[in-house]
Design brief:
This is Endosialidase. It comes from Murimonas intestini. The structure is a single chain. By secondary structure, the protein is mainly beta. The protein has one domain: Chondroitinase Ac, Chain A, domain 3. It contains no helices and 13 strands. The protein has strands at 8-10, 16-18, 27-34, 37-44, 47-52, 55-61, 65-72, 75-81, 86-91, 97-102, 105-111, 117-122, 130-136. A hairpin with a 2-residue loop joins strand 5 (47-52) and strand 6 (55-61). The radius of gyration is 14 Å and the shape is globular.
Length: 138
């Protein structure tokens, strides 16, 4: 897979992909409609951030490209790629505990803070995606 040159797009399976970590200057797209929600993405090599209806969803430092983001029930899944290891923050349920899987391997349990932010670190190699799955209460 590669960066999302249009900054954000809807995939054939109904998921969304966003982010371009190859950009030298920050670019953004606001008002992207997907399933009745409005999305805003800001991205470049130092950070990628996604908001839905004005609320935080995803952030990575440095910037990344996310493919196939899906949030269903108590699970968030996506593939991420970048030029180097990244710290990723996602919005989940306040104070809830989640199991995190990276490329199918159990990466442990993480508790979201009282603001609902869950932070994880992912080792990324250029040209290779890491599959992330976050499941509540497992």
């Amino acid at each position: 897979m590669s960066v999302v040159t249009e900054l954000i797009r809807t995939e054939a399976d109904g998921t969304i992909s966003f982010g371009n970590y190859e950009l030298i200057q920050k670019e953004k797209m606001d008002g992207y409609e997907h399933e009745g929600d409005l999305y805003k993405v800001k991205t470049y090599r130092e950070i990628t951030k996604l908001e839905r209806n004005g609320m935080f969803v995803y952030e990575s430092v440095p910037g990344t490209a996310v493919h196939g983001l899906s949030v269903t029930g108590d699970t968030m899944e996506f593939e991420v790629e970048g030029s180097e290891d990244a710290q990723i923050t996602v919005q989940m349920e306040d104070g809830a505990e989640y199991s995190v899987y990276i490329d199918g391997a159990d990466a442990g349990s993480v508790k979201a803070n009282m603001g609902g932010k869950l932070v994880l670190s992912v080792e990324l190699d250029p040209g290779r995606n890491a599959a992330i799955k976050i499941v509540k209460g497992n």
